[in-house]
Amino acid sequence: MRAFIIDFDGTVTREDVGFSIIKNFASEGWKEIGQLWIDKKIGTIECGERLWNLVKSTDKEIKEYANNFEINPGFKELVDKINDNSYKLIIASDGYSVYINEILKKNGIENLDIFCNDADYNNGWKLSFSNKNEECSICGNCKRKLVEDLKRKDYKVYYIGDGYSDICACIHADVIFAKSHLKRYCEKHEIPYFGFDTFYDVLDHI
């Protein structure tokens, strides 16, 4: 049995949507909060809550903005390939449902298993992290637990990602497809991986 875990920001999408939302909609102070996270002085959950408290735009405005982002070429074809072979596919993101669901829907890609954080608007943003690891504050959404759960069920796990939130999880996978920060991490630590730019590169290997 095969399972494919795919990151969203910068992987399914060509750009990091969550970062772009903060950059364009948050009031002053977001850079300083982001630097605290980079310096590991605060975890992802605290960082996310503090950043989204600076966003005064409504969910309608955020969703409209999210529709400007393109998905990476070949993603639809990869989804079709996975479904045709009855493999498991999970979108795993440390980002937020408010824009992930919107972008997938816009591109006609629905009914996927999505493992992410939630951001709900009601006169302000409320975040929830239902997949957090109580013993670790690095990520809001523990992707490593997802990989380990699938491995225990005897899946061969293929991990596709690009960023910091993918590092802890991917090293437990059987096959890694990496670009950007994740690619550099794999190279630095001599972890075997396949490089990719678009999902057509992934399709070439499976």
What's the SSE blueprint?
Elements: E1 2-6, H1 8-12, H2 17-25, H3 30-38, H4 44-52, H5 59-66, H6 75-84, E2 88-96, H7 97-106, E3 113-121, E4 125-128, H8 143-152, E5 156-161, H9 167-170, E6 175-178, H10 180-188, E7 194-195, H11 199-203
Parallel strand pairs: 1-2, 1-5, 2-3, 5-6, 6-7
Antiparallel strand pairs: 3-4
Helix pairs in contact: 3-4, 5-7
Protein name: 2-hydroxy-3-keto-5-methylthiopentenyl-1-phosphate phosphatase
Organism: Clostridium magnum DSM 2767
Cofactor: Mg(2+)
Strands across the major sheet, in which order?
4-3-2-1-5-6-7
Which class best fits the helix and strand makeup?
alpha/beta
CATH H-level homologous superfamily name: HAD superfamily/HAD-like
Which band does the percent of strand residues land in?
15-25%
* Mean pLDDT value: 93
Number of separate strands = 7
**Which range best describes the helical content: under 10%, 10-25%, 25-40%, 40-55%, 55-70% or over 70%?**
40-55%
Could you spell the SSE succession in H and E letters? EHHHHHHEHEEHEHEHEH
Distance between the termini: 13 Å
Low-confidence runs of at least 5 consecutive residues: none
Radius of gyration: 17 Å
Question: What is the top-level CATH class?
Answer: Alpha Beta
Features:
206 residues; alpha/beta; Rossmann fold
If you had to describe this structure to a student in words, what would you say it looks like?
- The protein is α/β, with parallel strands linked by helices and 206 residues long.
- Helix 10 links the parallel strand 6 and strand 7.
- The relative contact order is 0.17.
- It has one domain (2-20, 66-203): Rossmann fold (3-Layer(aba) Sandwich).
- The longest helix has 10 residues, at 75-84.
- The two termini are 13 Å apart.
- It is globular.
- Strands 4-3-2-1-5-6-7 form a seven-stranded mixed β-sheet, sandwiched between helices.
- The chain is 43% helix and 19% strand.
- Helix 5 packs across helix 7.
- The chain has helices spanning 8-12, 17-25, 30-38, 44-52, 59-66, 75-84, 97-106, 143-152, 167-170, 180-188, 199-203; strands at 2-6, 88-96, 113-121, 125-128, 156-161, 175-178, 194-195.
- The protein has eleven helices and seven strands.
- Keywords: Hydrolase, Magnesium, Metal-binding.
- Its EC number is 3.1.3.87.
